[in-house]
């Protein structure tokens, strides 16, 4: 474990838009860390980011960065298909790992990565960005304090309209996949964060689910080809389920439903009260939280205490930098031993991925599916 007074030294893999607008600003914002190096196969792009964020070392390969002995944490911010191999390489080298979701398309591989980290005494964290929003942090604190009493029902939504227009190029899809069957897209890329929040707020995990997936817009522009193609992917889905603790829940995700970024809404209803958190940029505000109690049933907006914001943060900041600053701050505190535990880690990611795999199986087999899954997920879950 890094000592509490040590500066955490960071190496970043990937020089894409999400690194530029969320990851790198998050690391730069926290004085307890320093970015030592960045690597990307498009080395010119890595050099641009190095100049922008004052990063002293630039590499074209991940091997060169991971081999450095003066790096404590590797941040994997690369295309999804590379996450598992890069995370494992960093863990094998004795580095803590922050990885964008998913670690792997198969929950058993995510669990393997979690076990590798545990065997080496390393911390991991997944890019479950939205559990770290100030409003969500405050909502979790209220739940822990007993505001809602015993949780009964969770409703989660993750939706916006960024691919409602079929001319908007799709990214991270397999355009060579068999298009006679639907492939997972929104369920995984968009569903994971709200599934994670459902587990977090209910204090329990789904034990049984039934769901469906739908391809609403079949012809799309594909970034990899620059042409319109048949893309049989789920651009909308919904499922219901039962939690281990007796609660019930529903989750809907889509990237063709009208609404602004990031499009997250979490609702929890309990024996004493209810809370509704919306992470949607509207009228210059990126998050709101409302609460009601059994003796005051009209929902009223709750003010989010400043202690849940990163330094200099407010609800009028971009959600990208605001929420990710809290994620980075949480990971640094864990690595330095300033707080106990390791939230939002690869094991949490494995449970979310198992839920995704279960919903997909439910759709394909047209039945309720129990968790834990006894067999590997069906083929075709990677899209």
Average pLDDT taken over every residue: 95
**What share of residues is helical?**
25-40%
Listing every helix as H and every strand as E from the N terminus to the C terminus, the arrangement reads EHEHEHEHEHEHEHHEEEEEEEEEHHE
Q: Based on Cα principal axes, name the global outline.
A: globular
CATH architecture descriptor text of the largest domain = 2-Layer Sandwich
Distance between the termini: 36 Å
Biggest sheet, strands in spatial order?
A: 16-15-14-13-7-12-11-8-17
**Biggest beta sheet attributes:** 9 strands, mixed
* CATH class (first level) name of the largest domain: Alpha Beta
Find the CATH topology of the largest domain.
Answer: Dihydrodipicolinate Reductase, domain 2
Count, helices? 10
Query: Strand tally, please?
Result: 17
Percent strand: 25-35%
GO molecular function, one term: nucleotide binding
Keywords: Oxidoreductase
Protein name: Gfo/Idh/MocA family oxidoreductase
Describe it for me?
By secondary structure, the protein is an alpha/beta fold. It has 2 domains: 8-130, NAD(P)-binding Rossmann-like Domain (Rossmann fold), CATH 3.40.50.720; 133-317 and 341-370, Dihydrodipicolinate Reductase, domain 2 (2-Layer Sandwich). Helices cover 31% and strands 26% of the residues. It contains 10 helices and 17 strands. It has helices at 17-29, 43-53, 62-66, 83-92, 107-119, 134-145, 186-189, 191-202, 319-335, 346-365, and strands spanning 8-13, 33-39, 57-59, 73-76, 96-99, 124-126, 151-159, 206-214, 219-222, 227-230, 236-243, 248-254, 262-270, 273-280, 288-293, 296-301, 369-370. Strands 16-15-14-13-7-12-11-8-17 form a 9-stranded mixed beta sheet. It has a 6-stranded parallel beta sheet with strand order 3-2-1-4-5-6, with helices on both faces. Strands 9-10 form a two-stranded antiparallel ribbon. The longest helix is centred in the last third of the chain and has 20 residues, at 346-365. The protein is globular, with a radius of gyration of 20 Å.
């Amino acid at each position: 474990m890094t000592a509490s007074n040590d500066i955490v030294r960071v190496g970043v893999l990937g020089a894409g838009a999400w690194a530029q607008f969320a990851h790198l600003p998050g690391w730069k914002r926290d004085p307890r860390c320093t970015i030592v190096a960045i690597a990307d196969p498009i080395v010119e792009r890595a050099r641009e980011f190095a100049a922008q964020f004052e990063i002293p070392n630039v590499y074209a390969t991940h091997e060169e960065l991971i081999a450095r002995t003066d790096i404590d944490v590797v941040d994997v911010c690369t295309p999804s298909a590379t996450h598992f191999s890069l995370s494992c390489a960093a863990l094998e080298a004795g580095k803590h790992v922050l990885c964008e979701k998913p670690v792997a398309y198969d929950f058993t591989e995510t669990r393997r990565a979690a076990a590798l980290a545990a065997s080496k005494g390393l911390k991991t964290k997944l890019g479950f960005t939205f559990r770290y929003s100030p409003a969500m942090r405050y909502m979790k604190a209220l739940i822990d304090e007993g505001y809602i009493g015993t949780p009964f029902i969770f409703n989660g939504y993750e939706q916006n309209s960024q691919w409602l227009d079929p001319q908007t190029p799709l990214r991270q899809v397999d355009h060579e996949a068999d298009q006679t069957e639907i492939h997972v897209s929104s369920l995984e890329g968009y569903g994971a964060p709200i599934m994670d929040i459902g587990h977090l707020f209910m204090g329990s995990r789904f034990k049984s689910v039934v769901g469906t997936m739908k391809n609403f817009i079949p012809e799309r522009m594909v970034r990899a080809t620059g042409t319109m193609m048949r893309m049989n992917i789920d651009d909308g889905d919904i499922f219901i389920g039962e939690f281990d603790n007796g609660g019930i829940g529903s989750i809907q995700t889509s990237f063709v439903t009208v609404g602004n970024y990031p499009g997250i809404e979490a609702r929890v209803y309990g024996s004493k009260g209810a809370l509704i958190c919306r992470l949607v940029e509207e009228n210059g505000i990126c998050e709101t939280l409302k609460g009601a109690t059994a003796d005051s049933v009209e929902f009223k907006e709750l003010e989010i205490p400043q202690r849940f914001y990163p330094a200099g943060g407010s609800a009028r900041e971009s959600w990208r930098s605001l929420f990710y600053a809290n994620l980075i701050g949480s990971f640094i505190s864990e690595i330095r031993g300033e707080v106990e535990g390791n939230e939002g880690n690869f094991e949490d990611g494995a449970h979310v991925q198992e839920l995704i795999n279960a919903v997909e199986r439910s759709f394909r087999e047209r039945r309720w599916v129990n968790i834990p899954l006894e067999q590997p997920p069906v083929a075709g879950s990677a899209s």
